[in-house]
Amino acid sequence: MNDYGHELLFGAFITPVAQPAQQAVELALAAERAGLDLATFQDHPYQPRFHDTWTLLSYIAARTQRIRISANVHNLPLRQPAVLARSAASLDLLSGGRFEMALGAGGFWDAIAAMGGRRLSPGESIEALGEAIEIMRMLWDTEERSGARLNGKFYQVNGAKRGPAPAHPIEIWVGAYKPRILALVGQLADGWVPSLAYLENGLPSLGRMNQLIDEAAEAAGRPLPACGVC
Fold it and tell me: How many domains does the chain have?
C-alpha cells in the first residue's frame, strides 16, 4: 500500500457509549494526552446505547485543545447534508480548524427507516453520497457569490446561501469497501476510512482496494495522490 507522500496520522476509534456518560470523553482526552492526531467516533443515531455523535463531537471539541476530531463515519441517511455542512463549518471555526468530515452511505437500513430515514438500495445510497459531497463543498465555497444549486435525485439546494467558511479546508473522507463506492472515493473524496473488521481478507485487501481508488481517480482526471488511507 502506498502512502502517496501523505503525512501519517494516528488516531483512536472510540465507541460513543452513553453509559458511563463521560467514558467516550475521557478516552478522547487520553488520546490527546498520548499525542495521537485524531479522535474519531461511530455515528449510529438509531442506537439508544450511544450518545448522539454530533453532540459528543461538539462537547469534546470544547474539552480538548489540539487533537483533530471526526465521525467514523457520519450516517448520511439520517443527517441532511446542507445542515451537516453548516454544522461542520461552525464546529471547525469554534475548534480552531480541528474538524474533518467523514461520511458513510448507510448500511443498517431497518434501523434507519425506523428513525424516519429513506430506505435506499446500495446503488442509490452511493449516488446520494455523491450528491451530498457536492452540496457540502458548494456551501463551504464562499468565494463563489451566487447561491448554491443542485437539483439532485436525492438532495436539492435551490439558491442556498453559502457559508460560513470553515477555519481550514475541511477534508471529506468516505468509509468504503465495495468497488462502486471505492470508485466514488477516487472520483470525489479527499480520504478513505476503512475499518479492519470490515475487510474481507484483512490487511492484504488494502492494496487492491487502493488500486480501485487510484484507477477511478485517474479516470476522473484527478492527479494522484487524489486521496489516501486515513
Answer: 1
